[in-house]
Amino acid sequence: LGSTGTGSEGSVSRVPELAPDQEVSIVFESYNFGQAGAWTDTFNELIAAFEKEHPNITVTAQKPQGNSANPATDTISSLQSQLTAGSPPDVVQLGFSDLDFTINELKALPLDDLVGRDAVQANFDGARHPYAPSARTLGDWEGKTYGVPFVFSTPMLYVNKKLFTEAGLDPEQPPTTWAEVRDAAQAIDRRTGKDGVYVDCLTKTAKDWCFQALVRSHGGTVISDDRTRLTFAEKPSIDVVRFMRDMVREGIMPNRTQTQAVESFARGDLGMILESSAIQGMFLQGAGDAWELGAAAMPSFEGKQAVPTNSGAALFVFAQDPAKQRAAWELIKFLTSERAYTTIATKIGYLPLRTGLVEDPGGLESWAADNPYLAPNLAQLEHLEPWVSMPGPSYLQIRDGMMQAVENAVFQGAGPAEALRSAQQEASALLPGGER
Amino acid sequence: MSRIQLQGITRRFGPVTAVDDVWLDIADGEFLVLLGPSGCGKSTLLRLIAGLLPPTEGRLWLDDTDLTHVPPQQRDLAMVFQSYALYPHLSVARNIGFPLRARKWPRAEIRAKVAEVAATLGLTALLDRKPKELSGGQRQRVALGRALVRDPGAFLLDEPLSNLDAKLRTGTRAEIAELHRSLGTTMVYVTHDQVEAMTMATRIALLDEGRLAQLGTPSEVYDRPASVFAATFLGSPAMNILDATVRSADGSLAAHGKGIELSLGIDAVLPDRPVRLGVRPEHLTFAPAGGRGIHAVVTAVENLGSEEVVQCLAGEGRIAVRGPRPLGVSAGDAVTLTARPEHLHLFDSASGRRLTWQPESVPASV
Amino acid sequence: MSRIQLQGITRRFGPVTAVDDVWLDIADGEFLVLLGPSGCGKSTLLRLIAGLLPPTEGRLWLDDTDLTHVPPQQRDLAMVFQSYALYPHLSVARNIGFPLRARKWPRAEIRAKVAEVAATLGLTALLDRKPKELSGGQRQRVALGRALVRDPGAFLLDEPLSNLDAKLRTGTRAEIAELHRSLGTTMVYVTHDQVEAMTMATRIALLDEGRLAQLGTPSEVYDRPASVFAATFLGSPAMNILDATVRSADGSLAAHGKGIELSLGIDAVLPDRPVRLGVRPEHLTFAPAGGRGIHAVVTAVENLGSEEVVQCLAGEGRIAVRGPRPLGVSAGDAVTLTARPEHLHLFDSASGRRLTWQPESVPASV
Amino acid sequence: MTIDDAVGEPRVRRLGGHLVLGVLSLACVFPVYWLYATSVRAPGDVYSLSVLPWPLSTASYADAFAKNDVLGMLLNTGVVAVFSALGQLLVALLAAYAFVAWRFPLQRLLYLMFVGTWLVPFQATMLPNYVLLSRLGLLETLAGVIVPTLCSALGVLLLREHLAGFPKELLDAARMDGRSSWSTLWLVVVPALRPALAALGILLAITAWNEYFWPAMVLQRSNAVVQLGLRSFMGTEGNDWGPLMATAGLACLPVLVLYLVLQRHIVNAFVRSGLK
Amino acid sequence: MVSGTFVEVAPPLRAREAGVVPASRESWWTRARRIAPPYLYLTPAVVLLVVWTYQPLAQTFVLSLHSWNLVPGTPMEEVGIANYERLLGTPELGRSVWRTVVVILGMLPFTVVIPVLVALLTRRVRGRAQGVYRALVFAPMLVAPVAGAAVWQWLLDPSAGAVNRVLGTDVNWLNTTGTAQLSIIVITGWHVAGFAVLVVTAGLTGINPDYAAAAQVDGASRSQVTRWITLPLLSPTLAFLVLMTVLLSAQWTFPLIDTLTQGGPVGSTTNIYYLLWEYGFRHHDAGLAAAAGVLFFAGFIVVAALLTRLAERLSHHDD
Ligand SMILES: Nc1ncnc2c1ncn2[C@@H]1O[C@H](COP(=O)(O)OP(=O)(O)OP(=O)(O)O)[C@@H](O)[C@H]1O
Ligand SMILES: Nc1ncnc2c1ncn2[C@@H]1O[C@H](COP(=O)(O)OP(=O)(O)OP(=O)(O)O)[C@@H](O)[C@H]1O
Ligand SMILES: [Mg+2]
Ligand SMILES: [Mg+2]
């Protein structure tokens, strides 16, 4: 084991194990505490269990400061304020979109250095069920693991089976391509008077994860592979935007905010919605006895393979003190353990990253069996590609600029090509090495 | 012609009856002064006439029209408010021209008329000033100008001089009196200052707690006050009021009290009757000590400059005597005061109302 | 013993000099009245004495101590404010007891002392009321009580009667005068009412624009005003002031003007000298028409109840005459007015200061 | 006495006034009513449009209580509101007293400093203040929420206006009666200003009660004030309307009750304060 | 014959003219005790003000001359006025300033016109109704912005919301560029109108009723009285309200924007404060945000000074 000294720019030395009687208290910041109900309860339960297992470690849970309706959008500004104040939380749950910034600007600690690559990999391998291969590297940067992927969801096409039936469609055969989606939406719109479809990938609030998926499914990218050039104003993106814009113009995709769309679907006023699998619970609750929920994989564009991306978050360590760093790692290990995932999946409905669990009779097998929506979700993992975070300190401005252009073109009547092009031009200046 | 008639006008504010069943008939061209202590309902009565308050009961006539429900805009009256109520944001010229503007006169005519009024009031040099740049007396004149500009049926003036200092007051008082003489318009003038009331009124209406206590010419009110209230309200120092008993002695009546014996100059025999005896300070004279009259001790001598007021104590009552300086007495002197019978006023000891002597044959007043 | 000395006290507010180099020596037990028109600096001077304002220049002594920089809490003075300044949230008893509470007297003693003061002022029945439940006169007495309760070195009273109506005013005036007599404490009393000044003062200090214009007993100030300002300030109606020329004729001096010829009763020969001639309205008498005197035309007769004021026009000047009712003239009459030489006042036409006649041999005043 | 006492007000115009006012008032209260109506609807009826909520149900309240420590939040918010209002009152009272009772050099400059706080964007001072609080160790405490708000410019300005109308002679009288400025403040000024202080205090308390921005920054570890509790029912996944409205209803209730009870005084004191 | 002269009576002794000016020395201790109290009373407020407002403002100013991502340890780079140049170069700034102007203009009906109307009308109705109307109009003020936002979000919901169902429209009020700003303005207006009504009522109460009475006697009709007398005399109050609206509108809308639209759709509700917020707390561009903060502060000082000047010129004080 290495020395216990701390480096200047955050500790990158190996941290020692905790002595059995060494009292440590750490702060865990997660946006899941911002939401009342199942989320908070489950996490409190997990933390209680962790503290029982590690009596010498006390965990204080907190939500990000700030007050956005979606606490997940406050994570970075919250962390930044606390860093500025010199008292960052020890373990933080941050989205993949912020990966570049988290590691390069906020200096999240490399776990490989902190506890050793072996330990990190051992955790990924788990006791019985390893991480899904596509999930293992989501928190890596230039070959080092900084964050342990924790929660994870994929875009799914949810359908209202009742409306499908009413519209004379087959509820057991949800659309698999976007053309079919459009036809089905038309049918629903015309026959039931309800709204046809909503694609929750096209607004600034939705962030860019599933817009990236749409563009990639259409053979494009939003940023070049070497991350030095923005490419979202190129043809594949424009075509995607145009296609979506046309659905809006036809009146089969309503102009909604994310919240409104989700509520509307939950209420049974919307035929289909492309939405994160994380929200499934809300849909099930909304459906109740009034209508039946159906789920399908993300549709593809004619003749192309659909490429879903993942949304979700990883756990990062910001602790400055070796003991806390070690305790933080213990917490991460616990929260990504088989046991934790079993709890999270059953209580909240999140997809377990240890996919093997769904076949484990002692794990989630019965839960999976009761959950017919799981299969398409799992099937998508095969083609899953990571959510690419934008580079540089202005990454959010870039992302928001892009999504704002998309939103403007799709819902507010701007020309897709011009909107995307001018957004790309403005955003390019914000890239590292850009004009700025 | 503007005759204003009040028929049983009453105004209540919740439990307070500010004006209580007042009947008044104000003839055209009259200068009626409303007089009374603070809070007796003077302003309220004026506001009732102006239409700024609806009466709770009673009716109001202007000549032959029933004004009771006519809004103030349509009554042909001009009012000068106690506070002047000059529009603070308008220049003197626009203040004066305001009533004409409301009547949609053409601008040029308004300007001409305002200039004319301003000239008569000596305001020409001030026309562009704002009210706050004026002295109290100038403000007063602007308020008058605003009323004068339109030649109304009657003027209502609410204590227009109360904010002026003594010197300015005397001057303005004379101006208003002159104005009334020259215009001949009916004026209703509220004041709590008796000098104003005495010098300006053709008739005085004395109010007490909302009721009409006495109505008459200034000298009637001063010389023959109808009640103790009226007697003590007018005059400075106020009329001396003493408890006494009217008793016949030697076939003629005299007022008796502690250290008091004053002949009433009436030859009659009557049973004893308790009364309140009133005599004005200026009507008392010093008599040789020991004679009949009021026996009193001087407590203080006040020098008013031209006159002196001597404060005395007679029995338990305080008595003031007023006369030209010097009166020649000083504190501590024992004096005897007398007054001519015609200067003695008798009031009923219970109701306080004036008593007059009604001989069996010829009426004669006490 | 409380003798208050002001040595060159001056107070400026920015460019305004509210009190200008005032020297006063107020003897123990004196009743000094500060008199003057509005804005002349009376209140400021009182506040300087109280210590509520620091003087810009000058020193202030109480007996032998230099008070100039002593805070008001430590000066042994009591003040009655123009507005009474009763604490609105405290009962009468607690208002009166307030200064004692500040001096940490024991409760029982405070209660006893308050009861005693309340008894002398006739406030015993009101001790539990709040100020807003009191009439103006009662408030006045409570304010006095608050000053009396602590037996201070001197009382400072700022227009304590200005808010009262005429009747209440007369009564309270007498009470304060009596109080001064019985206590013998020094009092400095501010007023703009000359009747108060004349009747109560042992000495009057007349202020004009912050300067001492005259200092003397009431009769000195009334009978021998030191300047036109003093002459016109005291007296109601004010002293008549006319432009005239002193001219010798037949070896004796007389004042000549437009329609004016009045003998000054001085035998002397002098070059002509322009002067301002003053004569009080009550000193003018009607003389047979056509004789020597002031030729004037009556413009109005005002009835004051006991007296009349006759307004006349003489040349361009207005003249008021006052006398007992009835004077027997009416508007429009041409009259001749005379006055005795000793009632004529002469003032320098430039400086406005009083002129006295200084014979070569024996001094004699005009 | 107002002009509208005058003779001859046509009845029709008065009715017109009622009509306009009625419509406006309705527009003002309707959302408030809707908030409560929704909060007592049965969970399935949350989207119902019927004006009268029927059948009534307390399910939403039960839900709100189950998911959040609503009582604790109300208590915390109450503590914040009360102490913040009292603190602001005290600070503002002292400052306003200084401005009114003395003239002194720098007076105008200092006064402008207070007015100036209106011009400083809150967003610009937020982060430095947060860092300072953190250094003071006041994060996660109610004191941290209260302390930075203690100097209320509005309070100083309003009280100064009020005090300016306070008869100065009372202050002088107290001095003549032997009082120090401190005891004058408490024995003379405060009792006489009581209605105004109460009205202002209530206004400040309402503002503090409704504040959520700053608490959101300082209190991360719990839903420590009730306005933040509201947030926890809002989310990307749609709002949980029932408990959201129930919590909102509870959050407004104390203020509403306070207002209803003291309505007259608040409005009157305000009106009398002659705020110009 | 006697000869003599007239002599002027001498004025009372005036020593300064004689050159004797008595002076009294004040000890430093009494002087200090005389001068100190107001400063002592102001101390708590001023300390709080400096610590929580002006000191941070100064920091912000310093920060605006630097480029820094706020992370301790990373260097703070001095960049002079580069941040300001960058700020003035962004097209967003101009747009957000314009939107702020729109918000302010849109708020004026709610903070001035409606309150004046309501206050004038409530004076006209009698008795208890007066109080009831005032109370009802004030009620929204009591609702926390978040709670208010929640209700309005509900009422404005495009498919289930009461507004659309009542109006029979199909508008997504909060998510359409044309209507989002309008909605924000209306909701903010709803929230603050009661306060403004209170202010106007207070202002009206402060006007001596004699003026209106005099005007009536002078023959002015009701509407003339309102136009010629009441409104001009109310002008200081109105000026206060306008000033408040101009300075605080953008602040008032902030919580609503943050809850309801997050500056969207497509930035159509991003006013200067929201922009500042985005720079500072979403884009973590501390230098730019600080520059914006300083710029807005300076801008508002200018606006406030101009407005006060203007208001003083235009409004008529009643005294
Ligand atoms: N609007 C009102 N509401 C209630 N009471 C009123 C109102 N106006 C006047 N009063 C009461 O009516 C009575 C008469 O008031 P008014 O103003 O007419 O007196 P006043 O004779 O003009 O007195 P002053 O000489 O002091 O002006 C008083 O008792 C007063 O309190
Ligand atoms: N605090 C002040 N600041 C500026 N000027 C003042 C101040 N106090 C008084 N003055 C001015 O000083 C002069 C004298 O004022 P003071 O109050 O002493 O007059 P006064 O003789 O008491 O008048 P009044 O009879 O009207 O009460 C006035 O011109 C007044 O304007
Ligand atoms: Mg009156
Ligand atoms: Mg004074």
Largest sheet of chain A: 5 strands, mixed
Determine the N-to-C terminus distance of chain D: 21 Å
What is the N-to-C succession of helices and strands of chain A?
EHEHEHHHHEEEEHHEHHHEHEEHHHHHH
Weakly predicted, low-confidence segments of chain D:
none
Structural class of chain A: alpha/beta
Largest interface: D-E, 91 and 98 residues
Shape of chain D: globular
Strand segment count of chain A: 11
CATH architecture of the largest domain in chain D: Orthogonal Bundle
Order of helices and strands of chain D: HHHHHHHHHHHH
CATH class of the largest domain in chain D: Mainly Alpha
How many helices of chain D?
12
Give the domain tally of chain D: 2
Enumerate the spans of chain A where pLDDT stays under 50 for 5 or more consecutive residues. 1-11
Computed structural class of chain D: mainly alpha
**What is Rg of chain D?**
23 Å
Oligomer: heteropentamer
Give a short synopsis of this structure.
Chain B is an alpha+beta fold and 366 residues long.
Structure, explained:
The complex is a heteropentamer, with 1 copy of chain A (436 residues), 2 copies of chain B (366 residues), 1 copy of chain D (276 residues) and 1 copy of chain E (319 residues). Chain A contains 18 helices and 11 strands. With 436 residues, chain A is α/β, with parallel strands linked by helices. In chain A, strand 4 and strand 5 (144-145) form a beta hairpin. Chain B has 8 helices and 20 strands. Chain B has helices at 42-50, 92-102, 107-121, 136-148, 166-183, 194-200, 218-223, 228-233; strands at 4-13, 16-26, 31-35, 57-62, 65-66, 77-80, 154-158, 186-191, 203-208, 211-216, 240-249, 252-257, 260-267, 273-279, 285-287, 294-303, 307-314, 317-324, 334-338, 345-348. In chain B, strands 6-7-8-3-9-10 form a 6-stranded mixed sheet, sandwiched between helices. In chain B, helix 2 (92-102) runs parallel beside helix 4 (136-148) and helix 3 crosses helix 4 (136-148). Chain D is mainly alpha-helical and 276 residues long. Chain D has 2 domains: 3-60; 67-273, Orthogonal Bundle (MetI-like fold). In chain D, 71% of the residues lie in helices and 0% in strands. Chain D is globular and about 70 Å long. Chain E is mainly α. Chain E has a domain at 95-314: Orthogonal Bundle (MetI-like fold), CATH 1.10.3720. Helices cover 72% and strands 3% of the residues of chain E. Chain E has 12 helices and 3 strands, in the order βααββαααααααααα. Chain E has helices at 15-18, 28-64, 82-89, 91-124, 128-138, 145-155, 162-167, 177-205, 209-217, 222-261, 272-282, 286-314, and strands at residues 4-8, 66-67, 77-78. Chain E has a two-stranded antiparallel sheet. Chain E is flat, with a radius of gyration of 29 Å. Chain E starts with a strand and ends in a 5-residue tail after the last helix. The relative contact order of chain E is 0.12. The mean pLDDT of chain E is 86. Chain A binds chain D through residues 29, 34-37, 40, 60-67, 69-72, 78, 81-82, 84-87, 205, 258-259, 262-263, 266-267, 278-279, 282, and chain D through 47, 67-68, 127, 130-131, 133-135, 139, 212-213, 216-218, 220-221, 223, 228-229, 231-240, 243. Strand 21 (355-359) of chain C pairs antiparallel with strand 1 (4-8) of chain E. One adenosine-5'-triphosphate (ATP) is lined by residues 13, 16, 18, 36, 38-44, 192 of chain B.
